[in-house]
């Protein structure tokens, strides 16, 4: 059965997220973008109303919500301001390896930290010479007695300056390529230095830093999953978070479309509102189709996770299409505004700058195409069940969503 109906709980959650975006995010979004303001107060409010850490299971203090709900929230964040939205959503990326590979004690401690107070965590994968090519990383983790000692620098780390703990990927067997990477949960301490806050083109209210580990020690039980299995953990994590990024891109595209549609009804040229000119109305129509199609791909990628089905192909389709669509829609929105679109006083140039990162972070559009091409050419069974450990993580969500009818 194909049914796009949301449950009452999902509708309520979407309304909550939309109202939050409208009342708390939108009024300050353009000012925070201009000044690169860190949205601390908004983070505290979002945490308070339950819009953060939504996938943390109840036993660790969270609501244990499903992935479709996550996509609904992230679309609204993207509609409000994707820079602030990224700050609000980044805990999800950091916590997923913990959910997938952490022991009960580790989950209790580190997920508990996020649910007891509005604290932040960061996902440390990328390095200056290892972006798309994850296995090229140089950070090392050496086992010394009952500890690991971590050395190396991670760049482009969302919320890096403000995080209380990090999930860190490091080489435990430097000669083994992707099969020599392990993942760790690392509490912030004095050996960790924050070297740089990036001055970005877009999403300027989000914090992006370089985080360096200098002889940083963690107990051996802070290893997530098995030693040398960190690459797979990273890929499985991205399968779970890319639908959220896609949803955020849908939100940016939707916001740009709404601004462009509104403006096209007000702006008069050649004696009529420009919406009456087919050249403009067709651009709006194309924007609407892209928003709709991107959302459907996003919901499918999220829904498969809720069903405990592998979503690698679906989430690359969703992330690639939603990100590229957000870019196209925002460029066209600037075009609809004409010369005014190029002026900061008008809302759409910010959206165009923000949209660009959607094609870059959590896997570029080219990496998504690489994944799609591999999946298609290898003819992999796209309905393959998730690996057992991951399936267990999704069990609760899958059970909860048995009654839900948001399937696609
Ligand atoms: N789930 C589970 N296992 C997977 C997997 C998946 N989705 N994808 C690959 N694997 C496994 C493969 O089965 C294979 O396993 P074996 O070792 O048993 O053979 C192994 O991983 C290697 O797979 P590939 O040969 O496909 O790996 P590759 O190196 O050719 O390609 C890649 C991998 C797709 C290019 C990958 O490196 C990738 O996604 N790169 C992009 C990285 C990325 O998204 N970075 C973003 C950082 S986070 C961020 O941006 C957030 C922020 O804070 C700003």
Q: Could you describe the 3D structure shown?
A:
By secondary structure, the chain is an alpha+beta fold. The protein folds into three domains: 8-116, Orthogonal Bundle (Butyryl-Coa Dehydrogenase, subunit A, domain 1), CATH 1.10.540; 121-229, Beta Barrel (Butyryl-CoA Dehydrogenase, subunit A, domain 2); 231-398, Butyryl-CoA Dehydrogenase, subunit A, domain 3 (Up-down Bundle), CATH 1.20.140. It is built from ten helices and ten strands. It has helices at residues 8-35, 40-49, 67-101, 104-116, 230-266, 278-306, 312-337, 348-358, 365-378, 388-400, and strands at 121-124, 140-144, 147-158, 165-171, 181-187, 192-197, 208-219, 223-224, 268-269, 272-273. The protein has a four-stranded mixed sheet. Strands 2-3-7-6 form a four-stranded antiparallel sheet, covered by helices on one side. A hairpin with a 2-residue loop joins strand 2 and strand 3. Helix 5 (230-266) packs parallel to helix 7 (312-337). The longest helix is centred in the middle third of the chain and has 37 residues, at 230-266. Mean pLDDT is 94; it is low at 396-408. The site of acetoacetyl-coenzyme A has 25 residues, from strand 3, helix 5 and helix 9. Acetoacetyl-coenzyme A (CAA) binds next to strand 3, helix 5 and helix 9.
> How large is the radius of gyration?
21 Å
Strand order within the widest beta sheet: 1-4-5-8
Q: What would CATH call the homologous superfamily of the largest domain? A: Butyryl-CoA Dehydrogenase, subunit A, domain 3
Span from first to last CA? 8 Å
Tell me the total number of β-strands. 10
Helical stretch count? 10
């Amino acid at each position: 059965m194909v049914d796009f109906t949301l449950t009452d709980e999902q509708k309520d959650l979407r309304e909550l997220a939309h109202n939050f975006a409208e009342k708390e995010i939108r009024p300050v979004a353009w000012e925070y973008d201009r000044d690169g303001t860190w949205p601390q107060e908004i983070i505290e409010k979002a945490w308070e109303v339950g819009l953060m850490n939504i996938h943390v299971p109840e036993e660790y203090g969270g609501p244990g919500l499903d992935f479709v709900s996550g996509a609904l929230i992230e679309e609204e964040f993207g509609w409000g301001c994707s820079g602030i939205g990224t700050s609000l959503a980044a805990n999800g990326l950091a916590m997923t390896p913990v959910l997938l590979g952490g022991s009960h004690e580790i989950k209790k401690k580190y997920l508990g930290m996020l649910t007891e107070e509005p604290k932040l965590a960061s996902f440390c994968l990328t390095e200056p010479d290892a972006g798309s090519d994850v296995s090229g990383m140089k950070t090392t983790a050496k086992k010394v007695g009952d500890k690991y000692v971590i050395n190396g620098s991670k760049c482009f780390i969302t919320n890096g300056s403000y995080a209380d703990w990090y999930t860190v990927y490091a080489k435990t067997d430097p000669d083994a390529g992707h099969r020599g990477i392990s993942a760790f949960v690392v509490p912030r301490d004095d050996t960790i230095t924050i070297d740089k806050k990036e001055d970005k083109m877009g999403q300027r209210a989000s914090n992006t830093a370089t985080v360096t580990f200098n002889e940083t020690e963690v107990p051996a039980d802070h290893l997530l999953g098995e030693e040398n299995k960190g690459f797979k953990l990273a890929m499985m994590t991205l399968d779970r978070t890319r639908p959220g990024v896609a949803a955020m891109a849908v939100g940016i595209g939707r916001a740009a479309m709404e601004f462009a549609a509104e403006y096209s009804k007000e702006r008069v040229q050649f004696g009529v509102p420009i919406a009456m000119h087919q050249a403009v109305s067709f651009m709006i129509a194309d924007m609407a189709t892209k928003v709709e199609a991107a959302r459907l791909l996003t919901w499918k990628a999220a829904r498969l996770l809720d069903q405990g089905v592998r979503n690698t192909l679906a989430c690359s389709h969703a992330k690639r299409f939603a990100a590229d669509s957000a870019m196209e829609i925002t460029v066209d929105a600037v075009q609809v505004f004409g010369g005014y679109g190029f002026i900061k006083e008008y809302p759409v140039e910010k959206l165009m700058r923000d949209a660009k990162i959607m094609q870059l972070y959590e896997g570029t559009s080219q990496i998504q195409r690489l994944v799609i091409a591999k999946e298609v050419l290898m003819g992999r069974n796209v309905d393959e069940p998730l690996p057992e450990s991951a399936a267990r993580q999704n069990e609760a969500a899958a059970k909860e969503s048995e009654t839900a009818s948001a399937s696609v």
